Amino acid sequence: MISFDLTPAQEELKRRVEGFTMDIVAPYEKDPRNTPHGPTDELRIELNRLAREAGLFAPHLPRRWGGMGFDHVTTAIVFEAAGLSPLGPIAMHCAAPDEGNMNLLDKVATEEQKERWLKPFAAGRIRSCFSMTEPWGAGADPSKMKTSAVYDGDDLVVHGVKWLITGARGAGFTIIFCHVEASEGRPGGPTMLISDMDAPGIELTRELDTLDSSFTNGHWEVTFAGLRVPIGNVLGQIGEGFRYVQVRLAPARLTHCMRWLGGAVRAHRIALDYARRREAFGRPIGQHGEIGAMLADNELELQQCRLMIWWAAKLLDKGDHARHESSMVKTMVSEALYRVADRCVQILGGMGVTSDTVVAQIFRETRAFRLYDGPSEVHKWAISRKILKNS
């Protein structure tokens, strides 16, 4: 039987992270360095220092890399508490895309690659980005990928365009998902490459204006024009890119859920407090049936999301790959948290569409979450294929 009770150590850790997030980090939400394109690197570095001082830096990483070595369930508890502020995961160095890239490098990279990229990355000296999505449709369906690489001596030469590349400006390196052209007995197929972002042949061609604003330096279109990547910078094996995508995305879907759950909890707390204080027609609005029902629906869905996340996290802790389960959880949680955030805006009324509270931003973030790491429709299609095959 699965238990969802927190241990005393987990309870204490949750209190520590919530206190740090709300007392130390949340006041920075009004900092001018927290821009419409996300926090700047200057702000990120300052917040990272505060997290180190609090002993809460990189909680998801193995101890070998300076992390806290938590299991997936404890990570879920920590990430939810960090997610109470959009800046919490940034401060604790566990935001996307960095957290997913750290996990991928830890599992797939060679020791030489780990020493070159993961070591300074884990310490927060550099950031990363993940170059997979393309403007022509290679996102939810990566088989449509057009970015390609050809052999040239001991190098692979990359050409293509990626977009919605989170944090590209200021990143120390990128992981590039591309198709390697087989040549003269040398293997080809979908492949991941690692490149420093200041390498010749990488151009940041356009900064995108997006609905969300919680990722360091926002989202970019990136052009690869003759980028030379040494064969030694192949991540894993040539032709095995789709397998490594799942190594990255299955747990990353869950960690997205963990962080955004915290944001929805924060929005619900703000709406609940407002419903207690704001009066209309002779009594607090929370005592009106319509508002009370929305608050109850929020409470129900937040707890359902939490239990779903912990269930999938326990599967990962048991060594289960949990690809199918993470897909189900990501779909259900992203849709539910969007409904929670939407209700919170409605409860706050006019205030809900202003920047007087963080609720409007949380609403925008959870709307984008329904697309990130695969839109709900694609996950439902994949789920239906699996259940039809197994029925």
From TrEMBL:
Its cofactor is FAD. Transmembrane segments: none annotated. InterPro entries: Acyl-CoA_dehydrogenase (IPR050741), Acyl-CoA_Oxase/DH_mid-dom (IPR006091), Acyl-CoA_Oxase/DH_mid-dom_sf (IPR046373), AcylCo_DH-like_C (IPR036250), AcylCo_DH/oxidase_C (IPR009075), AcylCoA_DH/ox_N (IPR013786), AcylCoA_DH/ox_N_sf (IPR037069), AcylCoA_DH/oxidase_NM_dom_sf (IPR009100). It comes from Paracoccus aestuarii. GO terms for biological process: fatty acid beta-oxidation using acyl-CoA dehydrogenase. Residues 239-387 form the Acyl-CoA dehydrogenase/oxidase C-terminal domain. Residues 129-211 form the Acyl-CoA oxidase/dehydrogenase middle domain. Keywords: FAD, Flavoprotein, Oxidoreductase. Residues 7-124 form the Acyl-CoA dehydrogenase/oxidase N-terminal domain. One of its GO terms (molecular function) is acyl-CoA dehydrogenase activity. This is Acyl-CoA dehydrogenase. GO terms for cellular component: cytoplasm. Homodimer. It holds the Pfam family Acyl-CoA_dh_N. Belongs to the acyl-CoA dehydrogenase family.
